[in-house]
Amino acid sequence: MARPAKPANVIKLEGKSHRTKRELRSREKAEESLLSGVKLKESAEVKKHPEAHKEFLRVKKLLSGIDKGDDLYGSVINRYCLTLAECTDFEKKREHAQELMNKLEERSGEMEFEEFLKLQDGLAKQLISYDKQVQAKRKMLFDIEKENVMTIASALRSIPKSPEKKSNALKEALSG
């Protein structure tokens, strides 16, 4: 996989580049044109959900710290916060279903064996359904995180490589 192009500020931090000053200015202008200049806004749906709202405020603060708190990313960030809240809801439902399964097993002696198996089967299917939902939501979250510098790997791609040591070309030519 090809490494993505470095942002202009990363190139400047490296202190070396094959690009001209004109190319760097052009790159900076192009990067600035990709931002709307509008601060990141929370959607009404996220505001209504307490857990999604809390996550939005956390992510907004973090993105603002790296100059990415632009509303151009608003729909993705709002979707991320809602998906995270939905994932948490499914996890709670899964825990509740597991508690019901445990209670059912405790009371297994009080009912017919066939009835017990039927109830147990229904709860097991519900648990599996919740697990599938949680896994799907986690995959969505991870995909959003990868695209929005929210994972270690994506953050490392935007960090400059260590500067190369300068060598003496004359010494190299003479030594062979």
User: Could you report the average pLDDT, rounded to the nearest whole number?
Assistant: 77
Q: How many E strands?
A: 0
> How much beta, percentage-wise?
under 5%
Q: How many separate helices?
A: 8
| Global morphology | elongated
Distance between the termini: 35 Å
Tell me the Rg in angstroms. 26 Å
Helix content: 55-70%
Order of helices and strands: HHHHHHHH
Q: What is the SS-derived class? A: mainly alpha
Contiguous uncertain segments of 5+ residues = 159-164
Q: Biggest β-sheet, characterized?
A: none
Structure commentary:
The chain is mostly helical. It has eight helices and no strands. It has helices at residues 8-14, 21-33, 44-48, 50-65, 74-106, 113-147, 152-157, 169-175. The protein is elongated, with a radius of gyration of 26 Å. The model is unreliable at 159-164 (pLDDT under 50).
Features:
single chain, 176 residues
Blueprint of the fold:
Blueprint lengths: L7 H7 L6 H13 L10 H5 L1 H16 L8 H33 L6 H35 L4 H6 L11 H7 L1
Short description:
This protein has helices spanning 8-14, 21-33, 44-48, 50-65, 74-106, 113-147, 152-157, 169-175.
